[in-house]
Automatic annotation (TrEMBL):
It comes from the Bacteria. Pfam families: NAD_binding_10 (PF13460). This is NmrA family transcriptional regulator. InterPro entries: Ergot_Alk_Oxidoreductase, NAD(P)-bd_dom, NAD(P)-bd_dom_sf. It comes from Saccharomonospora piscinae. SUPFAM superfamilies: NAD(P)-binding Rossmann-fold domains (SSF51735). Residues 6-171 form the NAD(P)-binding domain.
């Protein structure tokens, strides 16, 4: 049995589908689940209340562990979660971390706790997700405008569906134990370029309007904890050289090139129409 936390999210949803299609027995976990692919068991549980995961972890061999932003805001404490994971008989954890750990933007204590847990582990460190563009969808639908800060700063954003495919490989195959995979998209893309890609997909112009850092901060605080907002803005505005580099690991892990923002946009187009 493979347990997938964050099962309704940008990575978790395609991961659950891919594992189920590959014939794996899967348990999907989130605080609220309304639908899962046929044959998938679902358990509602809260990562902040580790005891609530006991049922989900019964007979589990592998765990895909997502760490919500609020974990970082809580100083990354995993509490008793890893004790419960270990005592349930789980052997392997694939941890969805982030590139910000490598570049010291985010604390590394969650990764350290997993590495020290005695479980087999694989760590995934993706760059920013294409799906973050969904926060522009309402204004694109209403006014055909993208409002974002740092319009001309390019970053090698990644398709969360590619991250999910890598996670599926790490959960199903050997050779990924005690390895950390850095996952980026195929090219650096700026918010202004993303607006143009969305416009091209809609076949209508989409205007780019540059926000100040303060305006962006205010908007992001509506959905993200403050420390995560600040580090995200630091990365978006003043990325380090490492944060700007395209990493070819997705190509070698999946045997194909990483998907572009245009490919993600064509899948997500309904949200912008
Ligand atoms: N977004 C990025 O650019 C980016 C970049 C690098 C790494 N990451 C990592 O990717 C992960 C999620 O990314 P996302 O922002 O795109 O999120 P998301 O896809 O919106 O997914 C969040 C998922 O986690 C579940 N969840 C949230 N809090 C939970 C809790 N306390 N207990 C159980 N389940 C919980 C949510 O369902 P419920 O709300 O129903 O529980 C949902 O299924 C995070 O670990 C983040 O560090 C994100």
């Amino acid at each position: 049995m493979i347990v997938v936390t964050g099962a309704t999210g940008n990575v978790g949803r395609p991961l659950v589908r891919a594992l189920a299609e590959a014939g794996e027995r899967v348990t999907a976990v989130a605080r609220r689940i309304t639908e899962v692919p046929e044959g998938v068991r679902c358990c509602e549980a809260d990562l902040f209340e580790p005891e609530s995961l006991r049922d989900a972890l019964e007979k589990a061999r592998d765990l895909f562990l997502l760490t919500p932003g609020s974990f970082m805001a809580a100083d990354g404490r995993l509490g008793g979660l890893l004790d419960i994971v270990r005592s349930s008989g789980v052997q392997r954890v694939v941890l969805l971390s982030s590139q910000g750990v490598a570049t010291q933007r985010h604390p590394r204590d969650i990764e350290d706790a997993v590495v020290r847990s005695g479980l087999e582990w694989t760590i995934l460190r993706p760059s920013g997700f294409y799906s973050n563009a969904l926060r522009w969808s309402e204004e694109v639908r209403a006014r055909r405008v993208v409002r974002a800060p740092f319009g001309d700063v390019g970053l090698p954003l990644v398709d969360p569906a590619d991250v999910a495919e890598v996670a599926a490989v790490a959960l199903r195959c050997t050779g990924h134990e005690r390895r950390t995979h850095t996952l980026t998209g195929p090219e650096a893309i700026s918010p202004r370029m993303q607006a143009a890609v969305i416009g091209a997909a809609l076949a209508e112009p989409v205007r780019f309007a540059e926000q100040s850092r303060a305006e962006a901060r205010e908007m992001m605080l509506r959905g993200m904890p403050e420390p995560v907002v600040e580090t995200t803005l630091d990365i978006l505005g003043e990325p380090t050289r490492t944060e700007q580099l395209v990493n070819p690991e997705i190509n070698s892990l999946l045997g194909r090139r990483a998907r572009t923002f245009a490919e993600w946009t064509s899948r997500a187009l309904a949200a912008f129409k």
